Amino acid sequence: MDLEKFTKFLIQQAKENASSDIHILPTKERYNIYFRMSGKLDRKYKLTTENGMRLIQYLKYLANMDVGDHRKSQGGSLVYQLTETLEQDLRLSTIANYHGQESLVIRILESQEQILLEEHTYLSEELSKIKKLVEFKSGLILFSGPVNSGKTTTIYQLIRERQKKTDLQVITIEDPVEIEEESFFQIQVNEESGNSYEESLKASLRHHPDLVVVGEIRDEETARMAVRGALTGHLILASVHAKNAEGVMSRMMELGISQELLKQTLIGIIFQKLLPIYCELCKGDCIGYCIHNGRNGKRFSLYDLIENEQIQRLTTDNLHASAKNRNRNFNHLLKKVYSYGFITEHTHNQYIIP
Ligand SMILES: [Zn+2]
Questions:
Q1: Residue 342 C-alpha to ligand 1 middle, in angstroms?
Q2: Percentage of the chain with pLDDT > 90?
């Protein structure tokens, strides 16, 4: 097997199939290669164990990872030259199973590719309100949604569009930086060298930027710093892990931010998921190589938004009831897009928030 040729073939195929990542996974007898397309894994190729190991070794070498170590999980990145003019950003990560067999996942980053949010959402009402939030001079906007739900794409595109109207100094703090954007000052979090979220955010605020993006609020210090940033005249856009929009409030309170402070700073909560679109040609979810919806049109965003005046009415006691009964909450909107025929019944049932 020609490793160089096969690698190029693999990345080209993955891109043509609109896959978000390539999984090279060992079994007892061989290696299987899967593409993740529209959120689902699809087995594409089989390799002998020897070729699978050689391929992983080769890719680790390209990404400057430690090729001598097969047991420790490692991460790496690589700009792959597909053609003379076309580069592809890749993120690699390995782990080993208890037999000591390595697996590799390659994430295909959507570098520079700008999408128009309007053309990639099922319902535009929430999106137009979200766009207005980004016009504020200061405050905290919190985003939530599962991994790969398009949060970073949404945040980046919202800021780019606002930057078209006014020049803004934008600092992003992320782990890792997923999309390269020249007009932002992008900081990569690196706990080992002391560049934690907290430290990076503290340093960023001293630079008096207009807008700061915090890749993830996952500890009390970062939460406090984000709130302080919003109070001192910055617009802060940050992601928080939660199961629904109301859960973002409870998560911030768990991280030690009082409800009072949240009400003073929080101007919006956005919860989003990417749902596979129903395609008439495919008679179901639109699959990777179908030309009907284009490479970036296989999944659309569904946004749930809690605006400031609704936030003011939220209390610790009514959070749960609000998640259930609020008009246009995620599940209501999901039902709506299903009834419009935009998604299949299966997708509706799969994405509903229990
Ligand atoms: Zn299709």
A1: 12
A2: 71
